């Protein structure tokens, strides 16, 4: 078996450059990816997972990941929470639609509640905890959009109308609130 | 050059079956796709495009298509409208988030207005017209979600709160309102 080898060029029936296999002509179309996740509350506290994998190993995040084929976004958000924190969720509603064009992601973030109070780290998590909102380790959050989602969830909890939030004005997910610039991966 | 040839099996570092190239071992990850589109209004009328391409050639649709890499959903919806109807849009707000898991699509549909009243068919359209809502050819709409989007836009126009709509209760995009069952492609 040979090694994968692709050349970037425009296929005959297309207008954009794509990665085309040098061996067989297969066109590896790349599309933006859908991330589904949830801000999970239980008795006023918020569930966060400490990442066991790169990028951002050791940092805290909401349960979230790539939507799989054949899933609804709500089902995907439930699956990710089950995989990362061994929880069962009651889905509430769509909290936010974020766009991170630098890494070609659209994120659909839901509000959810624990169906029962049991949780534990899945294979991609070092730790899972319920945090009082005031105790969330803000300097140890994994991604800009985790900040956004927690802020927007707090606004929703305080009575904001149930309209999904979007990226904060001017933000594209490239900078952490502390000014740290972001690399090429997110979530 | 040989022909593309893939075998479906679970890669060593994965839990799901993927298409793997028989020649070089390249894993062709397939992800759900994001469709972005808009219900476009101009002076009380709604812009529709008659499809020049399969699936559903000859049927009417709202401007919509696949989000490309590096785009925000709003930019993608604007681009699709420009390509299909040669229009410039003012984007209003997110009208709906639909899920069609059968074909692994998530659709983000926006409300929009024409920035100026000029329009004409792009290469993927046979015709582009502004319809009075009462005159929309309901029996000649391309996809279930076009029905949903037009219904939801009418509700928004009638004063429904600005919360994005979702699939009609129990609907997964497999059946047209007239009972016709749907094939394997959509949009």
Characterise this structure.
The structure is a homodimer of 187-residue chains. With 187 residues, chain A is of the alpha+beta class. Chain A folds into 2 domains: 1-30, Ubiquitin Ligase Nedd4, Chain: W; 33-157, Nucleoside Triphosphate Pyrophosphohydrolase (Alpha-Beta Complex). Chain A has 2 helices and 10 strands, in the order βββββββαβββα. Chain A has helices spanning 73-85, 144-157, and strands at residues 6-9, 18-21, 27-28, 33-42, 45-51, 60-61, 64-66, 89-100, 105-114, 125-131. In chain A, strands 4, 5, 6, 7, 8, 9 and 10 form a 7-stranded mixed beta sheet that branches. In chain A, strand 1 and strand 2 form a beta hairpin. The longest helix of chain A has 14 residues, at 144-157. Chain A starts with 5 loop residues before the first strand and ends in a 30-residue tail after the last helix. The A-B interface holds A 1-6, 16, 21-26, 28, 30-34, 66-75, 94, 97, 99, 101-102, 104, 106, 108, 161-164, 166 and B 1-6, 16, 21-26, 28, 30-34, 66-73, 75, 94, 97, 99, 101-102, 104, 106, 108, 161-164, 166.
Briefly summarize what is shown.
2 copies of one chain form a homodimer. With 187 residues, the first copy, chain A, is an alpha+beta fold. The first copy, chain A, has helices at residues 73-85, 144-157, and strands spanning 6-9, 18-21, 27-28, 33-42, 45-51, 60-61, 64-66, 89-100, 105-114, 125-131.
């Amino acid at each position: 078996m040979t090694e994968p080898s692709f050349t970037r060029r425009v296929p005959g029936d297309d207008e954009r450059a794509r990665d085309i296999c040098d061996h067989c002509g297969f066109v590896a179309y790349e599309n933006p990816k859908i991330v589904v996740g949830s801000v999970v509350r239980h008795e006023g506290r918020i569930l966060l997972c400490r990442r066991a994998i790169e990028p951002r190993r050791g940092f805290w995040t909401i349960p979230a990941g790539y939507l799989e084929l054949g899933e609804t976004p709500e089902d995907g958000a439930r699956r990710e929470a089950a995989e990362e924190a061994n929880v069962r969720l009651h889905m509430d509603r769509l909290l936010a639609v974020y766009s991170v064009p630098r890494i070609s992601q659209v994120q659909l973030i839901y509000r959810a509640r624990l169906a029962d109070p049991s949780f534990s780290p899945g294979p991609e998590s070092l730790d899972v905890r319920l945090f009082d909102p005031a105790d969330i380790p803000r300097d140890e959050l994994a991604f800009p959009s985790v900040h956004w989602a927690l802020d927007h969830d707090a606004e929703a909890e305080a009575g904001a109308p149930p309209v999904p939030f979007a990226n904060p004005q001017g933000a594209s997910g490239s900078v952490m609130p502390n000014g740290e610039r972001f690399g090429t991966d997110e979530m």
